[in-house]
Amino acid sequence: MTEFFAWLVALPLAATLAYLALELLCGLRRLPRRPGDSSNLPIRLVLLVPAHNEEAGIARTVAALSAAAPGADILVVADNCSDDTARGAEAAGARVAVRTDPDHRGKGYALAFGREHLAADPPDAVIVVDADCELAPGSADRLAARALATGRPVQAANLLTSAATASPLVAVSNFAMLVKNLVRARGLTRIGGGALLFGTGMAFAWPLFARLPLATGDAVEDLNLGLWLARQGVAIDLDDMALVTSSAAPVESSRAQRSRWEHGFLRTAARQGMPMLLSGVASGSRLRAALGAHLLIPPLALLMLLSLLGLALLAATAVAAARWGPFLLAAAALAGCGAMLLIIWWRFGRGLLPFSALLRVPFYIAWKIPIYVGFFTRNQKDWNRTKRDGDRL
């Protein structure tokens, strides 16, 4: 009975770690160029920026977007703002649509409002950019051209930046974002033929954008929108040469934001992960099967925590039953996954995460434990805004 229980723990754990290692391996190389990555044809492009109380930084964001995409029109949706976001955006040269509806809060409602504003004279393509983000030069043209050429959504790589003086935990967080939003996204694309949406730096041709179910207060609207598209048979292209970045928030200000995303991911994974995987296998859909398997992998810090706890439990059962097979299987899977993460750090992450900060990874995992406990005690279901460095006290 003890050995049966050990295998019951070891097999799912090893399978999860092995699939993550496969995603990481498949994400080591840059994706090949595809038709539509660039175009010399004129494109009517709108950068749609949902903004809630972003007075401190909205002018800087608009200026940066104007410089990165000089031919694009910028529409800022000042959503339920109690500050001068609208005035700051307009002074910086953006068009502004003001939305006031305190009963319907959330980014999805803001995007739907912006779409209504554009519908009378729709552009060729729309790129959604968060109010604290910047597009790398040339990225907007690449994303829009590819979205028009394929008719599919196109997602840019979405990474965090921080000053060299940022705390080691911020550096670990930046590396975790690189693993999730670049390496694993590449791997998912190679395995399943499509990626997920990250909420910012995502481009749509207007005919597709016009029919998206945007008006929602869902805390992880981008994740659920990507899964909705997969169920419609629409794959999301990842352009890993296009880049959208934002400044990492201080650790002490980011717990609520992390709770929102990770709680939302865990809720969505619990509801949709296994059904998506099984429906993909049953229908022969490589995209849905890969997305389902992807959802069943917990966030990286949580997976490492569960793996260590699982190994400790398996070691105890191995000593009691004198059967080391389950422990060795799980340990080998964890070692393989850890080796892949070290390879990724060596190839891509040393500039983000110095070796001295790498040693702080256990502290980062410990810092996130209250977030995972909060999933059961105070589940974060509503949209919330991360405090920025420039906010008024």
Structure described in brief:
This protein has 393 residues and is an alpha/beta fold.
Helix content: 40-55%
- Specify the biggest β-sheet: 8 strands, mixed
Overall pLDDT metric: 91
SSE string: HEHEHEHEEHEHEHHEHHHHHH
Question: What would you say this structure looks like, in words?
Answer:
With 393 residues, this protein is an alpha/beta fold. Helix content is 54%, strand content 12%. The chain contains 14 helices and eight strands. Helix 1 runs parallel beside helix 12, helix 9 (255-283) runs antiparallel to helix 10 and helix 11 packs across helix 14 (361-377). The chain is globular.
List keywords for this structure.
393 residues, alpha/beta, 8-stranded mixed β-sheet
Please outline the helices and strands.
Layout: H1 2-26, E1 45-51, H2 58-68, E2 73-79, H3 85-91, E3 95-99, H4 107-118, E4 125-128, E5 133-135, H5 139-150, E6 154-161, H6 168-192, E7 202-205, H7 206-209, H8 221-231, E8 237-247, H9 255-283, H10 286-295, H11 300-321, H12 325-349, H13 355-358, H14 361-377
Parallel strand pairs: 1-2, 1-4, 2-3, 6-8
Antiparallel strand pairs: 4-7, 5-8, 6-7
Helix pairs in contact: 1-6, 1-11, 1-12, 6-12, 9-10, 9-14, 11-12, 11-14
